[in-house]
Write a structure and sequence with these properties.
alpha/beta, five-stranded mixed beta sheet, 12 helices
């Protein structure tokens, strides 16, 4: 399936250079703008990503793996949230996108039943429009969580989401604007557990450094941070356990258009087979703590996984 590692150094270098150029070109305020005719080329696979560093790393892994197997790839990274990129995928403007099974299912069907990882995957397959499909899911997941500081957890003996009822001070939630209306958002805390929140502070960096700083500084007391974030350990945070399944399992999965043939699907499935939960935490740490580029992180992981 994959090209042998021997003799790949020149190609890896070319991929990295090409990716840097493509990423620079995606820095405009409208990454889905019509300034390039390449998007509509039938022999080009357009790989997209959310405006989230971890998602961009996975998208870059997909892009480099496809290029290593002879596909022409265009990168359209940092698009934004699902409200923006899902219509583009359905319209055929993007062909490959790293997604998360539970979050995508809830975006498509807010009243989805949930269940085990397998059940969520099956429900997701059924919920997708005919123009899209998901390939094999990875063991890696970037699970949503309600997160507090260790100090706040110790003060109120917080262990799981329901234990937030122990909090006796105003509980301010912070996060991206869309968090306020997510199926697991503040309204769900009140409806499911009777937990009252005192306000919502929009912080638009997707659980990044601004969100973490607001949490650590006690400007907010509760936020949604992904469990694969290296900040969970480095900033002494606690992801509250979720025994009731408020958050669905969120395995990483390629969401693809009809353009993706069996060969391309095989490449992406091989990536999913190799991408573990620990891998994803390490990849995120390389981005956040080591300040490496998505291009370098992806290249290093593909070499280590022997997928070049």
């Amino acid at each position: 399936m994959f090209i042998a590692k021997k003799g790949r150094l020149a190609l890896i270098s070319a991929v990295a250079v090409g990716a840097v150029v493509a990423l620079a070109g995606c820095a405009s305020s409208d990454p889905l703008g019509s300034g390039s005719d390449a998007t509509s080329a039938t022999d080009t696979i357009v790989v997209g990503s959310q405006d989230y560093y971890s998602n961009e790393i996975i998208a870059e892994i997909y892009a480099q793996a496809l290029e290593a197997n002879g596909f022409t790839v265009e990168r359209t990274f940092r698009i934004g949230q699902r409200e923006v990129y899902l219509p583009e995928l359905e319209a055929g403007g993007v062909d490959v996108f790293p997604e998360y099974t539970g979050s995508l299912l809830q975006a498509l069907e807010p009243d989805a039943a949930g269940g085990t990882s397998d059940e969520i995957y099956a429900q997701l397959e059924a919920a997708l429009p005919d123009t899209l499909r998901v390939l094999d899911r990875a063991d890696a997941s970037d699970q949503n969580s309600w997160t507090v500081t260790q100090a706040f957890a110790a003060k109120y003996n917080l262990t799981d989401i329901e234990s937030l009822k122990n909090v006796t001070e105003p509980l301010i939630v912070g996060g991206t604007s869309v968090l306020e209306t997510r199926p697991y958002g503040p309204a769900a805390l009140k409806e499911k557990y009777g937990i009252e929140t005192a306000g919502f502070t929009p912080i638009e960096d997707g659980g990044g450094p601004l969100t973490v700083k607001a949490l650590v500084d006690n400007a907010i007391q509760l936020t949604n941070i992904y469990t694969a974030s290296p900040n969970i350990k480095s900033d002494k945070l606690v992801a509250l356990s979720d025994p009731d399944g408020l958050f669905f399992a969120d395995n990483v999965v390629p969401l693809v258009s009809q353009k993706i043939d069996d060969k391309a699907a095989g490449v992406l499935n091989a990536v999913s087979a190799a991408l573990s939960a620990d891998n994803l935490v390490s990849l995120n740490s390389e981005s956040v703590n080591d300040q490496k580029s998505a291009v370098d992180i992806a290249t290093g992981w593909l070499e280590q996984a022997d997928l070049f």
